[in-house]
Amino acid sequence: MSRKKELSPELKAECDAAKALFVSKKNALGLTQASLAAEADISAAAVAMYLNGTNPLNAKFASVLSRLLGIPVERFSKRLAREISGMTSVAEAPSASTLSAADMVRQMLDKQGKGLTDTARRRLMAAAEADDAGGAIEIDYYRPGVVGDEVWIAHYDVRAAMGGGQIPHDYPEMLQDVRVSPQHLREMGVEFKEHFHLKMVTGWGQSMAPTIKHRDPLLVDISIREFVGDGIYMFSWEGHLYIKRLQWLGDEQIRMISDNDRHPPQTIRADETFIQARVLLVWNAQLV
Fold this sequence. Notes:
By secondary structure, the chain is an alpha+beta fold. The protein has helices spanning 9-29, 33-40, 44-51, 59-69, 78-89, 101-112, 118-132, 182-187; strands spanning 151-161, 174-180, 198-204, 217-221, 231-237, 240-250, 253-257, 266-269, 273-282, 286-287. The protein has three domains: 9-88, 434 Repressor (Amino-terminal Domain), CATH 1.10.260; 95-147, no CATH class; 151-287, Ribbon (Umud Fragment, subunit A). The protein contains eight helices and ten strands. The chain is globular. Keywords: DNA-binding, Transcription, Transcription regulation. Residues 27-76 form the HTH cro/C1-type domain.
């Protein structure tokens, strides 16, 4: 029997977000996987395969989950939110060929332009009206704040200690989401390959102050699982989870450094240090 192909990181992230939202709300709403299965007209095993990331989410399951949890589909899948929106609007929407550029931009702004400033709205409409008059319409979809740029980043209750270390949870529970613009993050100097590699965690302790204060939310890149240069990392060592500055010493040794004198530097072995993520940003706008 051939092994089932693993989901792509994007599809797996959708499943993880859906599961976290379900877990966080099921008790208050009196939901179980069995009741979710009944509502979706599928088996409980199929529900488990969606939530555990074995099978990708689809529009039908996403719609049922959204209705039962009372949250928009885009909270866990912008891909399916767009698909569902297209399915529900195609019947009543006029043919694109009958719409002017201004009409199309106006529809776009009505559906997705709530985050735009009045100036940005006026510029888009002016460009569209110029196109209708025979000019050229040019929209740069990669500018900060333009429609479709924002993404949800999961915030996990993983108390990585900035001190003596803390035993990590086996199953971190998502507490809240943070909505950000990847383009804006890059303009701030945050470097990352894909936004779905980004997570939010909370630092715990005082040893990294003033760089990171107690309970500061931190933006981390979970795709970085090895030492890639001096910096601040989230890592496990001797069974405890830390957020500390790491410096390579050579000969398979790493210096573990606090940002104040509460904890003296320690030399630890690279083969006993398991990096979980690299810290990219303290959520008080301090780059690290």
